[in-house]
Amino acid sequence: MNSEQDGARRAAQEAARARAEQALHEVIRGILPALDPREITGHKHLKELGADSVDRVEIIIGVTRLLDIDEPMSNFSAIPDIDGLVAHLARGVRA
Fold first, then answer.
1. Whole-angstrom Cα distance, residue 57 to residue 72?
2. For residue 3, what pLDDT is reported?
3. End-to-end Cα separation, the chain, in angstroms
4. How many CA atoms lie within 13 A of 12 on its CB side?
5. Are 81 and 93 in contact (CB under 8 A)?
6. What is the largest CA-CA distance in the chain?
7. Cβ(9)–Cβ(95) below 8 Å
8. CA 32 → CA 14, 39, 71, distances in Å?
9. How far is 16 from 47, CA to CA, in rounded Å?
């Protein structure tokens, strides 16, 4: 792979990550409106943000719908934090 292709691939990955992060923040703020958006940081788990089990399911469903990602809920169970969730979602974002 030449440097131009590598740069294009990297740019596409960064764009997918940014889109996934923006969508996740949007859905979290919609489901947890009292949450200060500055609290939505990479190292925190949704539980730490105050999301109960129903909220967490709604967040995953909402963000996968928003990003048009078709994936079983079970694929999200072992994701440790917001950064992991964004990375996982970014892999499913269509260019």
1. 11
2. 85
3. 19
4. 11
5. no
6. 48
7. no
8. 26, 11, 23
9. 25
Q: What is the pTM of this model?
A: 0.90
Domain boundaries, the chain: 3-92
Contacts of 13 (CB under 8 A, 6+ apart): 90
Cα dihedral 68→15→28→59 (10° resolution): 30
Whole-angstrom distance, CA of residue 16 vs CA of residue 51: 25
- What residue has token string 């970014």? 90
Domain covering 3-92 in this structure, CATH number? 1.10.1200.10
- The DSSP secondary-structure symbol of 35 reads S
Residues of the chain predicted below pLDDT 50: none
CA angle 41/75/80 to nearest 5° reads 30
3-state SS, 18-30, equals HHHHHHHHHHHHH
